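Q: Given only this backbone (206 positions), what sequence would you predict?
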């Protein structure tokens, strides 16, 4: 009887262990699956954050599209020598640090274009003597062309036009960059009065 009882007890212990092992394996499997799920979610969130950051940087780059014309300041020099009158005319167009800003949109992108302002330096010499030395900036023409136009315009250029027995004529142009919106003006240096006269061509007035 004792041996049968011991045998019966051993079988019970084996049954208990047999039932415990499958339960333990199931719990381990659930635990491992849970860990994998958390890990995947964490990676997904990180990837999502990375994508958001990349997209954000891309938007900043698109909105911040900006160009400056010209990038570096420069000086253009136009010299004219009138031999029979011993007159030397020097015109310098010099870029400034200030600029006119134009904004435009295309395909949901904002483009900012900056155009440098310029000043004109006019020097006239006769027999090596300076008879005029002056500087022009667009602000000097506010009464003639209005502040509203000058706020969006630059001093495009200034040229020697012609000479006659009474004086020298020059042509200047103020323009809104990349448009047909512009104004011309004339300067006439009078040999007799030694003064520089200002006028607006009829075509420009119209």
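A: Predicted residues:
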């Amino acid at each position: 009887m004792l041996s049968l009882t011991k045998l019966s007890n051993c079988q019970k212990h084996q049954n208990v262990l047999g039932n415990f092992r499958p339960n333990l394996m199931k719990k381990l499997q659930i635990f491992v699956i849970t860990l994998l799920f958390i890990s995947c979610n964490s990676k997904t969130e990180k990837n999502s954050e990375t994508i958001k950051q990349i997209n954000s940087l891309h938007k900043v780059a698109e909105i911040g599209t900006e160009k400056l014309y010209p990038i570096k300041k420069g000086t253009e020099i136009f010299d004219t020598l009138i031999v029979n009158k011993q007159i030397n005319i020097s015109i310098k167009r010099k870029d400034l640090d200030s600029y006119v800003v134009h904004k435009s949109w295309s395909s949901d992108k904002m483009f900012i274009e900056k155009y440098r302002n310029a000043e004109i330096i006019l020097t006239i010499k006769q027999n090596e003597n300076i008879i005029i030395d002056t500087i022009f900036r667009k602000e000097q023409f506010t009464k003639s062309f209005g502040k509203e136009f000058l706020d969006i315009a630059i001093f495009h250029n200034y040229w020697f036009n012609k000479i006659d027995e009474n004086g020298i004529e020059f042509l200047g142009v103020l323009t809104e960059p990349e448009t047909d919106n512009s104004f011309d003006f004339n300067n006439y240096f009078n040999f007799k009065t030694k003064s520089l006269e200002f006028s607006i061509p009829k075509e420009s007035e119209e």
